[in-house]
Amino acid sequence: MTITKRATLKLSSMGCVSCKRAIEHGGRHFKEVKDINLDLASGRISVIYEDNGEPVIEKIQNVVSRIGYDAELEDVSEEEIP
Question: Are 37 and 45 in contact (CB under 8 A)?
């Protein structure tokens, strides 16, 4: 079984579509990330990833930081997928 986690991160602020695309594109480069979506209206990033011990959340936060924003972890939940 694979343990899949869903994390939600809250951005400090953002209103730029090109920054949204850059964060989503950057997050998809990590093999653990199965899906990433940034909702500009709520300022939240939803990340679905496989938990293999890699610091996925920190990697996403680094992508956000390189673009000039901050993202704080709000929630993480686990799901088992057979």
Answer: yes
Report how far apart, in Å, the C-alpha atoms of 1 and of each of 4, 10, 15, 52, 77 are: 9, 29, 38, 12, 16
Cα(37)–Cα(46) distance, rounded to whole angstroms?
A: 5
Q: How many domains does the chain have?
A: 1
Residues ≥6 apart with Cβ < 8 Å to 65: 71
What per-residue confidence (pLDDT) applies to 60?
97
Write out the two tokens for 25. Answer: 């594109």
pLDDT in tens, 24-68: 999 999 999 999 999 999 999 999 999 988 899 999 999 999 999
In terms of residue numbers, what domain contains 58? Answer: 2-81
* Single-letter amino acid code for the residue at 35: D
